[in-house]
Amino acid sequence: MSAIGSLVFCTDCGSLLDGSIGDPSKILICDICGAKNKDTVPQTIVSESKPSAFPSSLRAKRSAVQTLTAEDRKTEALAQHTCAQCGRKEMYFTTVQLRSADEGSTVFYTCVCGYK
Predict the structure, then answer these.
(1) 13 is an annotated ligand-binding site residue
(2) Would the annotation count 116 as a binding residue?
(3) Number of H helices, E strands in the chain
(4) Which residues contact 98 (CB under 8 A, 6 or more apart)?
(5) Rounded Cα–Cα distance for residues 49 and 43 (Å)
(6) Does the annotation flag 30 for ligand binding?
(7) Where are the domains of the chain?
(8) Is 20 exposed, middle or buried (0-12, 13-18, 19+ CB in 10 A)?
(9) 111 is in an annotated binding site
(10) What are phi and psi of 4, to 5 degrees?
(11) In a structure prediction context, what are the per-residue pLDDT tens digits for the chain, which is 116 residues long?
(12) What's the pTM?
């Protein structure tokens, strides 16, 4: 009979034995081969590992510090839209979902002259 943690296995065929209660005086009979095995006291095995023991590219990306430039923070796109104040033919725009998901996004236009 062999035990791993609180699981008890048959010594003859290696099958998992049912009914283990940790009483060494109890005999467990294997359902597969019929061998008689002694029950054992459950053994608790605790193992610990450090995150560095299992390197992960995802974990490395999550812990990496990211620095954003002004260009990275720019979320506006250029559109062919005439500015009402200066008459410029191109304006920057950005969209924001202000209401529920089943309604359209709100579009904000911004001109280089400062008009919004």
Answers:
(1) yes
(2) no
(3) 2, 7
(4) 105, 106
(5) 20
(6) yes
(7) 1-44, 74-108
(8) buried
(9) yes
(10) -125, 110
(11) 444 556 778 888 988 888 777 777 888 888 889 888 888 776 666 778 787 777 777 777 776 666 777 777 677 788 999 999 999 999 999 888 888 888 899 999 999 999 99
(12) 0.37
